[in-house]
Design goal:
The chain is mostly beta strands and 270 residues long. The protein is built from two helices and 19 strands.
Length: 270
Amino acid sequence: MHLLRCPTLLLICAGALSGGTPPDQPVWDLVWQDEFDTPGAPDPARWSYDVGGHGWGNRELQYYTEDRRENARVEDGLLVIEAWREPWEESAYTSARLVTKGKGDWTYGRFEIRARVPGGRGSWPAIWMLPTVWDLGDGGWPDNGEIDIMEHVGHDPGVIHASAHSQLHQWRNGTQRTARIEVPDAATAFHVYALEWEPDEIRMYVDDRLYLTTRREGADWRAWPFFKDFHLVLNVAIGGDWGNVKGVDDEAFPQRLEVDYVRVYRRTSP
């Protein structure tokens, strides 16, 4: 499943093809990756689990389990996060939420995740980032920020969303910095979802199609808390404030998010 690995990325390794590095193009060096080549549990040196079924601030319906193969495993060169309709700890569904916290934490970089999303109504898969230390404002959300690289809700198939949340720009007020792009085969084909995060700008891509750019506003952390370590989060939620807009199709389960690779790059020039 894996594409060509390139330890230094120059816009899809263009420098290697042209014989040189254009002076105005960014160069990204690979600093962290998981190619999901070893079957079994997700690599514990790279991934941990968020666990529980308390709604996760969005009235979600699933219980996130820990180290349970039905919900998270590596098989056939893919990370599989699978949501099931089954009773578990007073929840009606199970799923998994994998995090790199304490094992992969970064300030700035290029983040690439090649994935195929679930499509059942009521599913809400996400590839996103949260702060590792919550030390701004009241110490909670949204003061400390959130970066959503990919979100897809099953009741609106084939539409991918990216967002950046802060105290002044957040979804509860409808003021988040956000964009959407149509990817009609998102649930049947793999696509590369990417974030380029720099001190003054965040850019989001699908298959190198840029569709969201948001820029820093002065030095106010309330609008731009994106200057400290964040970690990656991969999960499949069920229902919730967004995923449950048109209800949950229980006949559609199980549903799975499949991830071919995760690669993180650090910008070295210009």
